[in-house]
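Study this chain:
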Amino acid sequence: MADENKLILLNVWASPFGVRVRIALAEKGIDYEIREENLSDKSPLLLKMNPVKKQIPVLIHGGKPVCESLVIVEYIDEVWSHKSPLLPSDPYQRARARFWADYVDKKIYSIGRQVWSSTGESQEAAKKELIGSFKLLEGELGDNPYFVGHTFGIVDVALIPFYSWFYTFEQFGINMVEECPKLVAWAHRCLQKESVSKSLPDQYKIYDFFVEMTKKIAA
């Protein structure tokens, strides 16, 4: 790969935001180099490429950084538009897709984190809010195979990384199959895609990771 087209992804293996980028690149069939970051000792490259937020993921394309997972996904979709479009061509459907991807971005991570990192009433409230958000997403999904129609796209890319969290949610008393059967069926449908199945971290390793994180928070 020529230097002007070289792709480097700065990432952390457990990050659902990094998984989004990996799925998008896999959908396009693009080769790239992945560099694992340690967020407690951030690399000079990460600090240089994302000096504002100092967060992952960062996609470096020909030496130029692109930050924020959904921004990166859209960038990938525009640059490699030759296959597997991730946003609808219709302006209204594209706006809808962006709305729901943004909803996932603003709700699921923060509430999901509260489920495994809090206790007592705060945890119960987070569980209730998470189930409500998932049910709202089920309503948007309807009887479609994927969000916003019949084609795997940006809303699916935004949400499917959190499938790796479902086992953790179940350990905290959320029966995903019972509460959100359509969402579970959608997730299994997404997992039939190699771009998804090969990009998602193991759900049991994620649970162990969260257990260790909780211990550190409590220490």
Q: What stands out?
A: The radius of gyration is 17 Å. The chain is about 60% helix and 10% strand. Strands lie at 7-11, 33-36, 58-61, 64-67. Residues 129 and 142 are 20 Å apart (CA to CA).
